[in-house]
Design goal:
Blueprint (H helix, E strand, L loop, with lengths): L1 H14 L2 H19 L4 H20 L5 H21 L3 H22 L4 H20 L7 H15 L3
Helix pairs in contact: 2-3, 2-4, 3-4, 4-5, 4-6, 5-6, 6-7
Length: 160
């Protein structure tokens, strides 16, 4: 109960203070990368998770320019998913990728289909997801499902 209050309070602080949110994202992202270099994946996860959540707050609340927020969100999600995959938590890695894809597609729909930069971040997410799915032994995704996934993405990204 107390932890839930602390998390809600921390989120509220970030939602109400753009400077603090930006600084927190940068600090957590950099710390996560610091732990990735020597392959200390367990140590990197909490920091990259915080960066991912903070980037989502920045994006959802329109606290900074949308292109920058999408870039930070995309970078954070790819690093977090890759780290989960390195820890052999493939379902968590896949879930992070899907969360990012869904959020970026929502952003694409809201900003119109002319924003090439959103499409490039989506493409990165789909490539990362494809890499995760094809590298995971016993993945539940068949080649037919992967092909359908690619077609859906192609239609969404290439709409006028």
């Amino acid at each position: 109960m107390k932890l839930q209050f602390l998390c809600a309070n921390h989120r509220s602080q970030l939602e109400n203070n753009v400077t603090k949110a930006i600084q927190f994202w940068q600090s957590e992202f950099d710390t996560g990368q610091f732990y990735l270099d020597p392959m200390l994946w367990h140590d990197a996860v909490p920091h990259l998770g915080c960066a991912f959540e903070t980037a989502e707050i920045l994006l959802s609340n329109k606290m900074i320019e949308s292109e920058v927020a999408c870039q930070w969100f995309s970078q954070s999600s790819i690093l977090l998913a890759s780290t989960f995959n390195n820890l052999r938590y493939s379902s968590e890695a896949e879930e992070i990728n899907w969360m990012a894809i869904n959020r970026l597609e929502k952003e694409l729909a809201q900003n119109g289909y002319k924003n090439q930069w959103i499409k490039s971040y989506l493409q990165e997410q789909y490539l990362n997801l494809d890499k995760l799915l094809t590298s995971t032994e016993g993945s539940s995704q068949s080649p037919a499902k992967l092909e359908a996934l690619g077609l859906i993405h192609w239609v969404v990204v290439n709409q006028p």
